[in-house]
Design a protein that fits this description.
The complex is a heterodimer.
Chain A: H1 3-11, H2 16-37, H3 40-57, H4 66-87, H5 94-103, H6 118-131, H7 134-144, H8 150-157, H9 161-181
Helix pairs in contact in A: 1-2, 2-3, 2-4, 3-4, 7-9, 8-9
Chain B: H1 3-10, H2 15-26, E1 42-45, E2 52-58, E3 64-71, E4 76-84, E5 90-98, E6 101-107, E7 111-118, E8 127-130, H3 131-143, H4 152-169, H5 173-177, E9 180-185, E10 200-205, E11 213-217, E12 222-232, E13 235-245, E14 251-262, E15 268-273, H6 277-285, E16 287-296, E17 304-308
Parallel strand pairs in B: 11-17
Antiparallel strand pairs in B: 1-4, 2-3, 3-6, 4-5, 6-11, 7-16, 8-9, 9-10, 10-15, 12-13, 13-14, 14-15
Helix pairs in contact in B: 3-4
The chains are: A mainly alpha, B alpha+beta.
Chain lengths: 185, 313
């Protein structure tokens, strides 16, 4: 089923919107959730929450790119679930490592209480990613958007694990330097 | 902003970047590939031997040997190598690369980790990775860690292992911080266009990296001109110009490479960039090299190959 037809089902409040979303994008969203949560049951719940989130958001939303919309929603829901798990000390696996790594890019002067101009930060992130060589960017996104383990990235990109780690670290250092230059507070 | 908020916000990046990464993740897994200068994979040389136009041999006074081979213009070098799969199965692969020059090394010795300290640079580097950071990486690799844990027991474990590595190097953390394993000047980091050239990039390979290695200078369709080849004492320095011919016969994106090779210690300093060969030569000449006591592995029993290129990351 095409994206526009699935969207139409949401807009007409047809419950088959969820079944069609699951059919078209279920495996994609599951992979995102499982990459972050590393737990099949939690991942499944996150995907179900994604359809519920979409049901509540559409209408009034009319996403231009349904795959990106579902993917972002799944990721957001999975991170929230991961935070809850972490608070309850139920582990969280690889994504926690990815979260810690990405946190190295947060400039020291941004303390945890301070609000950052998120629109501007997003602009800076996009500008930074656009300026990176393609492979570095893909690696960075695969690690920090999908939260995938380094071993899996090494297999997918045909690199040694140490090479993946080094390239990610270099990109993080570049991002930190870039963000330190920005006036986002 | 806390780490979860930051990670969550990263989820809002341009979907085009996410889709591009997704494409790779959906692909069949890639074989371990053509190059990393530290790559350890079994490799056997196929047709390169047939492609030799000129061979200049310089026998090292010590254990290390460097030979230069210029393939014919436009000729492709074909290599085969075996990828060892996790289940123990071997997967034969072939790879092809055009190259303007092949540097062939024979290092019959176990090496030690090297680092450098530039004594003169035309501009400040925008990125630099120190021996101290390398020690941290090596320590975490031994422990199977991906990143430096922020605190707690794991952090203490990583710090302890790093201290051990530094001890094996024979250096304190402060001393190790003064030496680099890689650095470059990249205007893209100062907000300029990513297409802008990289003035210089410095890296160093030690004799274990060079263990029976064919180093390809110049990619497909690129030609390499040997500007100067000088040997002084135990060191040999090569000045190279790499270019690619455009449709109108003009030279596209030329860059230079200055390679300083120690025939007694086996390291190879690589200074490449869009600056002129003389300036890169001055960087190479004024760069101090340190061999640490940290032993590196030389497990390869067959020939490997690598590519020297001017790239970011």
């Amino acid at each position: 089923m095409t994206d526009s037809l699935i969207l139409e089902l949401y807009w007409t409040r047809s419950e088959s919107a969820i079944a069609e979303s699951q059919r078209s994008y279920g495996p994609y969203c599951y992979r995102i959730a499982d990459g972050i949560l590393n737990d099949p049951l939690d991942a499944e719940e996150s995907v179900n929450d994604t359809w519920l989130g979409a049901w509540n958001a559409i209408p009034p939303a009319r996403p231009l790119n349904l795959k990106a919309f579902f993917g972002t929603l799944t990721r957001r829901i999975s991170i929230r679930r991961l935070r809850e798990k972490t608070a309850k000390k139920r582990g969280g696996g690889e994504a926690l490592a990815a979260i810690d790594e990405l946190a190295e890019c947060i400039p020291a002067r941004w303390n945890t209480e301070q609000a950052v101009e998120t629109k501007e930060l997003l602009r800076a992130l996009n500008a930074f990613l656009a300026a990176q060589p393609e492979t570095e960017r893909d690696l960075f996104v695969a690690r920090y958007w999908y939260g995938l383990p380094v071993a899996r990235l090494a297999e997918k990109f045909g690199l040694r694990q140490n090479t993946v780690l080094t390239r990610l670290r270099r990109t993080r250092v570049r991002l930190l330097k870039q963000l330190e230059k920005e006036e986002l507070l | 902003m806390n780490k979860f908020q930051f990670f969550e916000l990263f989820g809002e990046i341009d979907p085009a970047f996410v889709a591009a990464a997704e494409e790779i993740l959906e692909r069949e897994e890639q074989p371990r590939p053509v190059f990393n200068r530290r790559k350890v994979f079994s490799a056997a040389l196929l047709a390169a031997v047939l492609a030799v136009l000129l061979t200049v041999t310089a026998y090292a006074a010590g254990l290390f040997e460097l030979r230069l081979q210029f393939p014919r213009r436009g000729e492709t070098q074909s290599y085969s190598f075996t990828v060892e799969m996790p289940d123990g199965e071997s997967l034969p692969q072939t790879a092809e690369a055009g190259a303007g020059l092949i540097l062939r090394f024979d290092s019959q010795s176990q090496g030690t980790l090297c680092a450098f300290c530039p004594g003169w640079l035309p501009t400040e580097p925008t990125q630099s990775f120190s021996l101290a950071e390398e020690a941290g990486d090596l320590a975490r690799a031994r422990l199977g860690m991906h990143a430096l844990p922020s605190d707690g027991e794991e952090r203490a474990l990583a710090d302890e292992e790093t201290e051990k590595v530094l001890k094996e190097m024979g250096l304190s953390a402060e001393e190790a911080a003064l030496w680099s394993v890689w650095c470059d000047a990249d205007p893209a980091l100062a907000g300029e266009a990513a297409e802008a050239g990289i003035p210089y990039q410095i890296s160093l390979s030690n004799c274990s990296d060079l263990y029976e290695l064919d180093l390809l200078i110049g990619g497909a369709g690129e030609s390499v001109e040997l500007l100067k080849d000088e040997t002084e004492g135990e060191e040999r320095t090569l000045w190279l110009r790499v270019s690619k011919e455009g449709q109108n016969g003009d030279s596209l994106y030329p860059y230079h490479a200055v390679l300083r090779f120690s025939q007694s210690e086996g390291w190879l300093l690589q200074v490449i960039g869009s600056l002129d060969a003389e300036t890169l030569g001055k960087i190479a000449e004024n760069t101090e090299i340190k061999q640490t006591a940290y032993r590196t592995e030389a497990e390869r029993t067959e020939r490997g190959f690598g590519i020297v290129s001017l790239s970011r990351g």
